[in-house]
Amino acid sequence: MVKLLTLMFCFALMQDVVAQVQITVGVNKKDKPISRNLFGLFTEHLGRNVYGGAWAQVVENPEFVPASYWPVRDYGNMMEQKLQQSQETFKLTNLVNDSRNGFAAYWASSDNLHGRLLKEGIHDFQQIETGDEVGYIQSGVFLPLHRTEGYELTLRARSNNQTKVTLQILDLDENVLGETNFELNSAWETNKKTIKVRTSEHQKGDAYLLRLLVEPGTVTEFARILCFPDDHIDGWEPELVALLKNMKLPLLRFPGGNFVSGYHWMDGVGPIDERPVLPNPAWHGMEWNHVGTDEWINLCRLVGATPMICVNAGNGTAEEAANWVRYCNDPANTSMGKLRAENGHKEPFNVKIWEVGNELCGEWQIGFTDGDDYARRYAMFAPQLLKADSSISLVANGLIQVLEKSELISRGVDPEWNYKLMEHNGNLVRSVSVHSLVGRAVDENADPVEAWKDLVAFIENYPDFLHNLVVEPMEQANVKPKVAITELMDWPQPRSVGNVTSISGALWYSGIINTCIRSNGLVELVTRSALMNHGGGLRKDRGIIYSQPVYWSHFMYSSQNGTIPLDVKTDSPVFASTGKYVINKENISTVDASALLDETGNSASIFICNRDAETAQKVELTIEGFNPKKEAALMMIESNDLALRNSWENPETIAPVFDKITVKGNTVKYTIPPLALVRIILDSE
């Protein structure tokens, strides 16, 4: 006889209105296991995702390149604005003017210096000439002094005669908080030092100056200055490593994104002195090439994630991509394997998931094209990648479609893209990528609740959306459909409404993941956007790392052990969306739920999301075929404001609640507040 367990969840709340919800989970009725790759993450060399974000180095322009190197494209006077902002933040009154008159971007000088920006080989350098007095250049930095006083410094420089350079850390009142000396001569040398920065009045987020003082009567040239907090982990932020490790991140997609369509992987391997410094090919910013394949693979190993690489099918070649596979996966006795070994990694990286290009259907992409041409490109790339390593799995670059104002829009030059891909390539295509960046039609005048309902309607429509976009073209070609969602976020732009950085992003992500769990294996992987300072999840502002709500939503799924979907039936109130921003839909369930059983059958994770912005939900959950212990683990994240966000000043405005709930007999009462996601983990007796 099937045992029944009824759990009624209740929470002491202030809300006057409470709705009744019945959820039934059948443990005896199981689907085939999902892949933990549904809980992956995407990262890209964009803005402060990598440099100024996940990478712990704090100097804004460590390679002394001129402001003119920063890409302009359609960003207007962004560089001028950023220099002005840096000048004001760090009280560097000459910074903007100096960047126009012989000094590197983000570096200001004392009045008695003559500066020139020069180039030697693949690297730029800053030359400064002093007169009869000591001179200096300086740049603003944010230091995580709340975490550590120790900093590791690397200076590559030379001078016209034997001299010294003094490196100082100062507060904005020009009090010296730490200093060290570097001895220079006429040859380029790279020297490393450590420094202690001591201040009794430090507040989180305080700004500091990094100053390089030069002796009188010298011509000194600076090629590179690096400053890492001494608690970094192989260059990565230690808090980032801990947060990703704690969430048990299963999969990390890199290095792009739009970036990869102009990225050549050989630029990012080998000694740092041999890596070129280049403008970011896709975004405003510089590509220092301090972080490349080896560094990304190391991060994956540090946190326990499987690497997924997207290759350059924009202005790259199939041969280049195949050599990337060989560099990662060949033994050390081949040419590419030998190169990897020379770079410090004798054993293969064994990267098994490779994506052939990024968003090549769109005019914004380097090397964008139409469906016929991409189909031909894929036919060139795929065989060469598989020849390099026949054990890898490929993901083809799919069409981007969006729902806006109840209309299906193909973002790109060819709405027949996926059909042409399959028609030309057939069984050579194993899986097709989907990018779901939803909500761009939401404007600043939008009602937050109305916009939120439209975003939820997209979730409810997602199975049909994927069927029309990917399943039909693949089935028409007699290929078993497989979907890889390689970029994902809710993306309304106005801060007055919810998006990926607020509770909206956390609950929307939950809905998409629940849909993927219920897809019966159609969706093989999801890499949410993005790692840090891009999309939602983790932020680093003024040296302070903190999480947005979607990190905790992601954590709920990735940190638990369940992989076997259970049958879930939900009897819930419903609502409708207007379709003003995304799509109109009737009978949308207020409560969304999914459940996963672990491989032992002894632990069940239940995810319950209250998508109502105003009404609490009194939930009665019945689990059939499971005998739980008398205490269960609860985790919840919630907010009564769709647009509320965490910040560096208030990093825990929205924070998770962890608790234990007692099962008395077969019943526990719990009421879920509005805009909340709850995870209950039940272990069996």
Structure description:
The N terminus is likely disordered. With 685 residues, the protein is α+β, with helices and mostly antiparallel strands. The protein starts with a strand and ends with a strand. Strands 1, 2, 27, 30, 31, 32, 33, 34, 35 and 36 form a 10-stranded mixed β-sheet that branches. The chain has 3 domains: 151 residues, Golgi alpha-mannosidase II (Immunoglobulin-like); 343 residues, Glycosidases (TIM Barrel, Alpha-Beta Barrel), CATH 3.20.20; 163 residues, Jelly Rolls (Sandwich). The protein contains 11 helices and 36 strands. A hairpin with a 5-residue loop joins strand 28 and strand 29. The protein is globular.
Short structural summary:
Homohexamer; trimer of dimers. By secondary structure, the protein is α+β, with helices and mostly antiparallel strands.
**Total beta strands:** 36
The value of Rg in angstroms is 27 Å
**CATH topology assignment of the largest domain:** TIM Barrel
Tell me the name of the CATH homologous superfamily of the largest domain. Answer: Glycosidases
Top CATH class of the largest domain: Alpha Beta
CATH architecture of the largest domain: Alpha-Beta Barrel
User: Judging from the principal axes of the Cα atoms, what is the shape?
Assistant: globular
Distance between the termini: 17 Å
How much helicity do the residues have? Answer: 10-25%
Provide the domain count: 3
Biggest sheet: strands, sense, closure?
10 strands, mixed
Structural class call reads alpha+beta
Proportion of beta-strand residues: 25-35%
Mean pLDDT: 95
